[in-house]
Amino acid sequence: MRVSDEFRRRAAERMAMPMFCLSVAFLILVAALLVLWVDVPLFLSVRDAETAARSAGPTPKDVLCWISPQTATAAGMNLLLMLGAIWPFFVLELAFQYIVRDRDKPFCRRRSRSLLACLCPPLRMCARNPDVGNKIWFPALGWRPVDRRLRTRLEKAFSIPMIFIALAILPVLLVEFGMRQTVIAQPCLQFALHASTGIIWFAFATEFIVMVSVAEKKLEYCKSHWIDIAIILLPFISFLRSLRAVRAMRLARVARVQQLSKMGRAYRLRGLAMRVVRALMILELFHRIFRIGPERRLEKLNTILDEKEREVEALRAEIARLERLVEEQQQYGQRKVAG
After folding, report:
1. What is the pLDDT of residue 290?
2. Contact 236, 31 (CB under 8 A)
């Protein structure tokens, strides 16, 4: 049974907001999971090492933490279950699109973004929809065509908020390293630091997903924003190290000394990765500040102007070719009539 284009368009319009919200919810859960299974264990390992060295013995009882390792692990498992409950919705959307597809057009090529969303659901946040003219749906904006005007509007919308987000890393570093003993003794301050880390990561991930979705040349955008990619992906390396550390704890009964050594290396590598992330955030802060300067803006406008001039030249060449073709066809028609 063939389905009309109007039906597909209406279905896409109705699913736009729910799928956008599910994508954002998925990304929020990932940010929370990274906090619980990367940032919290890292803090706990540093806390235990410092308090044990200071007291030359076990961790003092007066050292508090807003969450225990067992609770963080259990909460992370619950988040994984929630992610697993959300994931099938993206698969179901792809299955629905396949059922109502236009059989005269290649499905995989038209739905490549939906296929990517099944592998990485946050990418569904700003996926173009061929049923609505390859437009993208945004809250408060509705469906918008992907063009230079939209890219400029999104860049302006993200520029100032993201500078404040990047600036937030400075007080986080100040409190984390300059007031370490106070942080160890204050569970509320610990929670604020962990929440700030999650919010900063979520903001960087959201901006990157949105902007790469509307970028005209995605590969060039990724090359020019490699710092953002590193900030987003490095915590996942630490996350894999955390899983290895958990596995080491379970196997500690079999080979206790060897497994504890692996745990120590995992914690050190995780700490190194998170330090690199924080250093990249500071580098990104300076990059964003200088990027909004008049010189940087002038350079960007000149680049856009050069691209547009090349496009105009190509259009003129195409117009001239078509004019010659039309003239040749007219001359041929006249000769045929005369003959």
Report:
1. 67
2. no
**DSSP state letters, 24-76:** HHHHHHHHHHHIIIIIHHHHHHHHHHHHHHHHTSSPPTT---SS-HHHHHHHH
Q: Which of 108, 77, 115, 79 is nearest to 94 (CA)?
A: 115
The secondary structure of residue 121, as a DSSP letter, is G
Residue type, 293: G
Does this model's pTM top 0.70? My answer is yes
| Rounded-to-integer distance, Cα 23 and Cα 29, Å | 10
Residue 256 has pLDDT above 50, yes or no: no
CA 83 from centroid of its chain's CA atoms: 16
Which of 271, 251, 90 is CA-nearest to residue 176?
A: 271
User: What are the phi and psi torsion angles at 58 (to 5°)?
Assistant: -65, 165
Q: Convert the pLDDT of each residue in 134-151 to its tens digit.
A: 899 999 889 999 988 888
User: What are the structural domain ranges in the chain?
Assistant: 5-292, 301-339
